[in-house]
Design a protein that fits this description.
five-stranded parallel beta sheet; Rossmann fold; globular; 17 helices; 3 domains
């Protein structure tokens, strides 16, 4: 018989840990489900859930956002992007547009879209006008971009790509001296595309329990119970707690199209730095659809520096699971969803935005100017 949420909670409490246990949930969608359901409040007090680096808007390099802004302002194009990207701020003088939203207000033709299908439709409506798709995201959104190009995009549709792979950021944390977590909940949607095998390194290389989860409370609690039981029994493995969607090998056709269209390259992550083989780039065969090949470069190399967040913003520490969102110096004070300063307060997958929406209003930084570290 399938266990419900109450049964899972009872089973978790029965494990009775006598020490703190930190579980990192990589995905912003997981964090949203956890916060909306209030799962932290019903878990044992010594079980901590740590938000991880699974927000593509948060880690999109500042230089890529800046490049998109400048391209839209200075070229006769239509620029389209997923809606969250329009509000991501960059460090620029107040007299200049600091986001795509502000560039749109300044006269640039910038439009929010929900999927690559929208980008194709806009390009087909006016074949004489270049349409640039600023495509930022992880595997789940990059795979449809690859499919769009593999199946034949309109000639006037170009891609300004800022795609990333999820697992290398977790590998970076685990390879550090202070990873800050004892178990991992891996994202179900990424595993649906790439296969759960992508997370086997967590167990095989680092001997840390891991479980793939979906986005319901039941699936998340099942994954939490799995990794906690693994810790209790000292028997670590990768558990698939989302079997109705996640299959061994992932989506074969999506992976084939990704490999056909994209190369895997070293890539910069905002606030983190360059992570080896963590990004996607268009292969030479698709250069005709590469916006960086078609237009002059608006990249600002000076922006490629580690820790590139707005002054005072601790978003990078939040992304890396080093502090909780309300331990950022600006959280709820200068930085709110209405006036976001850092990218973690912009996106629905950003931990700061999620916590604020869930009702967390107290800023712990004010009570402890040094901030209480998670890891």
């Amino acid at each position: 018989m399938t266990m419900g949420a109450a049964d899972r909670l009872q089973a978790i409490n029965a494990l009775d840990f006598d020490r703190p246990v930190r579980i990192m949930n990589v995905c912003g969608g997981h964090e949203r489900s956890i916060s909306a359901a209030g799962l932290r409040a019903v878990l044992p007090g010594n079980v901590e859930l740590v938000p991880g680096p699974g927000c593509p808007v948060c880690i999109c390099p500042e230089e890529d956002v800046y490049e998109a802004i400048q391209l839209a302002l200075h070229e006769d194009i239509t620029l389209v992007a997923f809606g969250d990207m329009l509000r991501v701020p960059v460090n620029a003088p107040k007299r200049e547009p600091r986001s795509l939203e502000q560039a749109k207000a300044a006269g640039a033709d910038i439009r929010p879209i929900a999927s690559p299908i929208d980008a194709v439709r806009i390009a087909e409506e006016d074949p004489s006008r270049p349409v640039v798709f600023f495509a930022a995201g992880f595997e789940t959104t990059t795979a449809p971009v690859a499919s769009m190009l593999a199946e034949g995009a309109p000639d006037n549709l170009l891609v300004l790509l800022s795609g990333r792979l999820t697992w290398p950021a977790v590998a970076l944390l685990l390879d550090s001296d202070t990873p800050g977590f004892d178990a991992l909940i891996a994202p179900g949607h990424v595993s649906t595309v790439m296969g759960p095998e992508e997370w086997e390194f967590v167990v095989d290389k680092h001997d840390i329990p891991a479980a793939v989860a979906g986005f319901t409370s039941v699936s998340l609690l099942a994954a939490m119970y799995s990794v906690l039981r693994q810790l209790k029994e000292e028997r670590h493995f990768l558990d698939n707690c989302y079997p109705e969607v996640v299959r061994a090998g992932g989506n074969v056709e999506a992976r084939r199209q990704l490999e056909q269209v994209m190369d895997v390259v070293d890539a910069n992550w905002r606030g983190i730095g360059v992570i080896p083989r963590s990004g996607f780039a268009l292969r030479e065969a698709y250069a005709a659809h590469d916006a960086r090949q078609r237009f002059r470069s608006y990249a600002d190399e000076s922006r490629k520096r580690v820790g590139e967040m707005p002054p005072g913003c601790d978003c990078a520490k939040v992304v890396l699971g080093k502090i909780y969102p309300n331990q950022c110096r600006l959280y709820g004070a200068a930085c709110t969803p209405r006036k976001p300063i850092g990218p973690c307060m912009v996106s629905d997958e950003g931990a700061c935005r999620i916590w604020w929406s869930a009702g967390y209003r107290d800023n712990e930084w004010e009570g402890d100017k040094k901030g209480r570290a998670v890891g």
